[in-house]
Design goal:
Length: about 475
């Protein structure tokens, strides 16, 4: 007997056994599909948890496991709806392709009554529907038995929230699988704060038998800081390579603004970064008396706005928020916009201070770290996108030119103007009791003093960096010696 036929016969024998077991054991089914699952894949397939989170490195086999699981549910559960959500059309059709690839290996093929790039329909009434998040509307699908989010770190939170109610009615199972994508979004939230409801699997590259160690070493050199995220399952706050490395969603985002105490309410300030071919970006800051936290209440960016359209947007915001100051970039292109503001609004557009940007970025990072600047999550999606993605350039001297920084610039303009906002005379006088006034004066004095110190420190640091380059270490007394 030739070797080939021996292998074939052994295969048939094990197929026979797997065929008997497949209905109750997805691992046996996986073997029928010609995937011998890794131990973690087997554990996922056999788990009966309703909420499973797979935090796995690239190429570990998440999608393959999900394809097998989707197919097993569709074949063995009558009228099952398996909904797969992926970030893009390409990824959605890729998952369906992975399922059809597995169907081809089955010794007895299930009867498909409908087949497209995004949907498979079986004659038992089951369906596998793969939705791209870009176009997905989950309305119209009811009671899925299984929902799979592939690359969940890139699936928008709103889409995820639209899925949750459907699962409650069907008591369905939810699988979130992905590679970390920064410390934000529902994938990160469930990973860190999801509690015992979630069964978590964390598979780094060194646990994956198909990833070559030499290739990994190469990737480590290439990706540097991002390696931790892509191959080691770390939810990194960006590496030191990110401009706003001090930002951490857990510490810096809120879902609601605090309620004002007493009679004094919110005060608002507006920052604008003008652009025509680029975006014009608006950032609205709010603060409360007796609260030293600054809140980013709202932000918005739009391309191709003329000065009068910018004026319209500002008027809309002002009718809602009654801000007391507008700070914008009045140089260059900003001039025409500034003129329009002056014409239409009682509040003049104050020129943004653009000196020592690097120093102010350091300061803002410090405030993020101390949790003193907070961003209202749902009203600032695009700003958050910039904050968590904006890297330094290769030389680490400037923000990377290939990434958007319009909203972060508008934030920086308005926030830095605020750090000197508590100067005497700039705040509307309020009638307070003498005790309250004294307390307030004292607290404002400390804030001013702190801001002055911080300004001085960052200006000195920036100058020193300029003089000595990136090797400059602020804690080394012998710098430059
Ligand atoms: N248990 C397994 N045995 C053999 N090959 C596998 C296994 N799991 C995954 N693969 C293969 O590894 C590659 C990456 O798998 P994939 O599921 O696309 O990874 P991910 O979705 O995690 O990036 C694919 O070529 C897939 O066929
Ligand atoms: Mg995948």
């Amino acid at each position: 007997m030739s070797t080939a036929s021996t292998v074939w016969e052994l295969q048939c024998l094990s197929d026979e056994k797997n065929r008997r077991l497949a209905k109750t054991d997805p691992v046996a089914f996986s073997r029928l599909c010609r995937i011998e699952p890794d131990p973690w894949q087997a554990a996922v397939l056999r788990s009966d948890s309703k909420r499973i989170l797979l935090n796995c490195c690239r190429q570990s086999g998440k999608s393959t496991t999900m394809a097998v699981l989707a197919l097993w549910n569709a074949i063995y559960k009558k009228r099952a709806l398996v909904l797969v959500v992926s970030p893009s059309l390409r990824q959605s059709s890729e998952l369906v392709r992975k399922v059809t690839e597995r169907v081809a290996y089955l010794p007895i093929k299930p009867h498909l009554v409908g087949e497209s790039k995004l949907t498979l329909e079986f004659n038992n009434g089951s369906r596998i529907v793969s939705l791209p998040a870009t176009e997905a509307t989950v309305r119209g699908f009811s009671a899925p038995q299984v929902v799979i989010e592939d690359e969940a770190g890139d699936v928008p939170d709103e889409l995820h929230q639209a899925i949750l109610p459907m699962l409650i009615t069907s008591r369905g199972r939810l699988f979130l699988c992905g590679t970390p994508k920064g410390r934000r979004g529902h994938f990160f939230d469930y990973h860190e704060r999801g509690g015992a409801t979630w069964t978590r699997f964390r598979i780094s590259a060194d646990q994956c038998p198909r990833i070559d160690a030499a290739e990994l070493a190469q990737q480590k050199l290439l990706l540097r800081d991002r390696y931790e995220q892509e191959y080691n399952c770390g939810f990194i706050n960006a590496s030191s390579g990110l401009v706003y490395g001090g930002f951490d969603e857990l510490a810096c985002c809120v879902d609601q603004l605090p309620k004002p105490k007493g009679t004094d309410g919110w005060s608002y300030l507006l920052g604008i970064d003008f652009g025509f071919d680029d975006h014009t970006a608006f950032v609205l800051l709010g603060y409360l008396p007796n609260d030293d936290t600054t809140y980013v209440v709202l932000s918005h960016k739009e391309r191709g706005l003329t000065p009068s359209e910018v004026g319209d947007r500002v008027a809309e915001m002002q009718s809602l928020f009654h801000f007391t100051r507008i700070i914008g970039d009045t140089g260059g292109l900003g001039k025409g916009y500034a003129e329009e503001m002056r014409r239409r609004f009682h509040i003049p557009l104050e020129p943004a201070d653009k000196q020592n940007k690097r120093g102010y970025i350091d300061l803002l990072n410090g405030e993020f770290r101390r949790g003193k600047v907070k961003i209202l999550r749902q009203a600032n999606e695009a700003l958050l996108e910039e904050v968590v993605n904006l890297p330094w350039n290769e030389e680490r001297t400037k923000e990377h030119p290939g990434f958007d920084n319009h909203l972060t610039d508008a934030l920086l303009y308005i926030w830095r103007s605020c750090t000197t906002y508590l100067q005497p005379g700039t705040k509307p006088a309020k009638t307070l009791t003498p005790e309250a006034q004294a307390k307030k004066d004292l607290s404002e004095f400390w804030k001013r003093d702190q801001a002055r110190l911080d300004n001085q420190r960052s200006a000195v640091l920036a100058d020193q960096r300029l003089a000595f380059g990136e090797e400059y270490d602020p804690n080394d007394p012998f710098n430059g010696a």
